[in-house]
Give the backbone structure.
Amino acid sequence: MAGAEAITEGSTADYIPELAHVPKDLIALTVQATSGKAISVANIPEHPATTLQSVSKLIPLIGLLEEFGADRVFSWVNVEPSGSDFASIARLAQFGPRPSNPMLNAGAITLCSHIPGEAEDKFRWLDKWVAHLFNKKLSINSTVLASEKRTGDNNRAIAYLLQSTGSLNASVKETLDLYLTLCSYEAKPQDLIHLPFLLANGGVNVDGERILSDDTVKCTLAIMGTCGLYNESGSHMVKTGMPAKSGVSGYILAVVPGKAGIVVLSPRVTKKGTSVRGEWILEQLSQQLGWHFALQ
Amino acid sequence: MAGAEAITEGSTADYIPELAHVPKDLIALTVQATSGKAISVANIPEHPATTLQSVSKLIPLIGLLEEFGADRVFSWVNVEPSGSDFASIARLAQFGPRPSNPMLNAGAITLCSHIPGEAEDKFRWLDKWVAHLFNKKLSINSTVLASEKRTGDNNRAIAYLLQSTGSLNASVKETLDLYLTLCSYEAKPQDLIHLPFLLANGGVNVDGERILSDDTVKCTLAIMGTCGLYNESGSHMVKTGMPAKSGVSGYILAVVPGKAGIVVLSPRVTKKGTSVRGEWILEQLSQQLGWHFALQ
Amino acid sequence: MAGAEAITEGSTADYIPELAHVPKDLIALTVQATSGKAISVANIPEHPATTLQSVSKLIPLIGLLEEFGADRVFSWVNVEPSGSDFASIARLAQFGPRPSNPMLNAGAITLCSHIPGEAEDKFRWLDKWVAHLFNKKLSINSTVLASEKRTGDNNRAIAYLLQSTGSLNASVKETLDLYLTLCSYEAKPQDLIHLPFLLANGGVNVDGERILSDDTVKCTLAIMGTCGLYNESGSHMVKTGMPAKSGVSGYILAVVPGKAGIVVLSPRVTKKGTSVRGEWILEQLSQQLGWHFALQ
Amino acid sequence: MAGAEAITEGSTADYIPELAHVPKDLIALTVQATSGKAISVANIPEHPATTLQSVSKLIPLIGLLEEFGADRVFSWVNVEPSGSDFASIARLAQFGPRPSNPMLNAGAITLCSHIPGEAEDKFRWLDKWVAHLFNKKLSINSTVLASEKRTGDNNRAIAYLLQSTGSLNASVKETLDLYLTLCSYEAKPQDLIHLPFLLANGGVNVDGERILSDDTVKCTLAIMGTCGLYNESGSHMVKTGMPAKSGVSGYILAVVPGKAGIVVLSPRVTKKGTSVRGEWILEQLSQQLGWHFALQ
């Protein structure tokens, strides 16, 4: 971690003011090989729980894939890398109406509108899938949620544009409430390791139980591998070879298929929203452990 | 193959008239597992050699990576998926001057301008790398080359735009001569299997000799996995999980890291330049043999 | 009018369902030379009042220019023709944050957010300027207003995008209420002639009273001449030479500086929202009366 | 002129190195009212002749309009303001194949490909129209022409893109030779006044002879009024109300229909290629003489 601590580039995202309250220099890492137990380390042992932000986009994607299948889900949203930033409305306006992929805000918002059930049931659906994927309950950080709601105009613009072309399956208000709630789940890295472990282990948990179908694992990792870091996905794959999903809070969930799940958290992020030290750590793991997918 | 033959969508690309002379319904496949020998099948046994087209973009990428290293090469061209089609000049004009990735025409043209040597030496460099990567000499189809030169105005526009921003390291004429020559190498699938096999086998050939460095294999597969099929790369990875490179002649080179190299050729292509039957065959192989990278 | 009646291209805009209730074949024309009285003709004498739609964008532009001056107003919105359609959000996202011009939805929405006063006062401000510019009160068509509100998601997307970049001076809700109300003023052509007459007569009414400043007249006509018909402004000026403002209901207000004001109404519009027969009539007037500005 | 001399913003365009040799602080003005003789003033009386640059785009436009008529010419190029800069290839790639308007490089290059005749005849055609429009012969600055040819890669990119979509009526080489020659005609302001005078006087010269048709004058002034200064056309019309054409050498030709032709030359230009002091002078003339078209 000394290497990572030497990196002082990047800063916490300022458009969600609450994120500035996380210790900027935190580095926390949890790794679980498919053959073993989770190991966690952190340079600030008593660090607070941190919101998942865009890492949460995996939740509706996986839940809907399991419940509706890939054909239905990919009739709502495309799966192509976009070459644009996570919140790009120009891309949606020019190439839409269907969002380019489920990792962009437009795609994740669209998927939230397809969460089944009425009113509160939809929030229960989120809780259910959070519990299923992380094997524990996560709580909502209501201060961050309030902060998101106060500053979410770009997402509102995206949602109304989607609604204007008939791409939403629920009202803008209901859809954004779900989307912003989703971003506000909070956890520590060790609380999140179950999902990347599952994806690395073909959808099967440590007890040998199938938790996710083969198909869902394939779709999810392919999407993480091509669009998980928006317009840094290509250089991320060159350096690490690990399908991953980043969040602007500094989380990265990464998967080494067949070998390991990884969660890293470090709040200094690039302008594109990727943890600077987190990427450095993934690159080191990839190189030193031969975990680049190209060398499997 | 019966399944593939039932597909009658797609047609041969019409902007290179010579391509129309390949038998449209041809399906030819070569597969080589890392543990075994190459196996080839075709529905038209005596089919002619076919030009590589964009599959050749791998040649300067790999040759330059080996000779100059990733840092130098990626200072000339980015490695991000672009969300645009292979010949997009709008993308280059809007997001340039550096091309988005080496699989787009703009990126491959830029790389051709960095091929070392003077005049004819550069063409010898191509022959050298062709021989190294495919373990045999390939010849140039001079009729296709003439056809490319006659119809290459979009590529000329790209090259002059690159030159206007100082992105080329050689003259437009010299650079395009190399680029169009590159596209005109011709072969049968069995002639091409050596490269995807090498990439699947970590850069080492059947005799255990290292032919490509680890680093080159990692960069190349990451780029194939995120940008190898342009704006069909995402859905290709969802369906097959195989890093691959397509060519408008109907070739697809695909790699199952650690397991197998694949070459498939079938000339009916989508509007985005991907072999329709070729993709179907890769999808079948992925599903039936468990070759999706997510399930390694 | 026989010539105009022979034209059967175009149809009423379908995204505001209420507009379909206007008689599609109506042609109504009012002309007032600076030297004379207004003359009105119509092929359906008892036609209903019709909403102004985008023609109303002139109201906040002129009112704000008069009250705040050009420097202030053009710090809120640019005055460049955009080459994009009236509702383009891609343009705003790519070239913003400041809207390209006050005739685009984004520009008019921005101007509505700068209407002075609190709450109901702002609506009174609109009524005041309507009365000033048209020399009579106009009423709101509440059915059209309801229709606009129900279908206004693209405008909501624009407004939230503007708010996300700090370009609005009032809440999205308040701003859109004003904007949609503005579009719903209704009138017959003879009710609207006062404004184009004023602009043709240098801001002075028939009684010789100055109603608008020189500066406002200059700014308004320059904007109408370059952006009044969005991405049909260039061909409109080639054919007619008359600065003008179109509305999707089929209205065009046109000005022949120094010579005449014109209001024409005919509901068949192009995909870009311009009255087909209305343009034809303006072209005839321009040619037969020598009213092209180039020949003044 | 004291006011104009106080302005020190802007500089000579650096992409045509020869332009840097013109005295940067020169201000030269020629005005000819339709009722009188031309009057010329300059702060550096013995200043050298300066190349016309984009002002020359008027020559093929007017010549072709006279010889082929508006319908033919506007089937080759649109007449819409583009909201983009003069050399935008992104716009052409996205909205083409037909160029947006004849004042953009893409539009002027397209028109050059339609100049009639074989080989040298086409250059004679240019000389003929130069003599007709300016009532004198102009010579070519061969140093500037060489400079243009050496640095014209962006224009080559545009021309090849046009050729790739079948928009050119002659070879790229021949077309660009004509286009770059066109830009290299040189003159002093008093040598150029005949054309704006003609356009101000409805196509008729001082002796009452008709030199240009009504139709050509209308089309030309409408295009100058909407696209003559690219994406500064709107603010130019707000400030001056004068249809005009700018060139990167610092020339602006402006027309007050019915009243006067104006040529101003001052080499400091904005990033968009408009003479800074030239615009200031036009604005003063417009205000002090009531020459804004809105107040005719």
About this structure: Residues 2-289 of chain A form a domain with the Beta-lactamase fold (CATH 3.40.710.10).
